[in-house]
Structures are given as C-alpha cells and as structure tokens.
Amino acid sequence: MVDRRRERQAAPKRALIGPLAMLAGGAAAGVLLWRTLMLEPEPPRGLGMVAAEALTPEDRQALHRVLDTRAR
Fold this sequence. Notes:
By secondary structure, the chain is mainly α. The protein has helices spanning about 15-40, 55-70. The protein has two helices and no strands.
C-alpha cells in the first residue's frame, strides 16, 4: 500500500505568486530606471530659437581642408 503521507505535495499557489510578483516588479523598476537614465535632457529652447553649433571661421576652414583631403 502507498503511504499518503510520503507523497510529494504540490506547492501552494501563494508560494508561486509572491516570487513572480517580485520578479515582475523588479523588472518594471529596472526598465523604468534604465529609461530614466538613458534619456538625454532636452536642449534649452528660448524664444522659439533652436540652438545651433557655431563654428569660427578658422574652424570652418580647417573642416573644409579635412573634408577635401578625405575626398581625394
């Protein structure tokens, strides 16, 4: 005869729900933290003007020289 006390019982459902909820919460928190840290701040905009890079005339000449030598 089989002893019923020795048979392995399945884990109760609450033993599975807790760890799964913690895992899902940790994953959501990780994604939120990653997203927050990876976002770049928006550039400042004042009076409808968009900030543009301004090159000095010397820098512009040097850039043209570099691009001309690469094109050859």
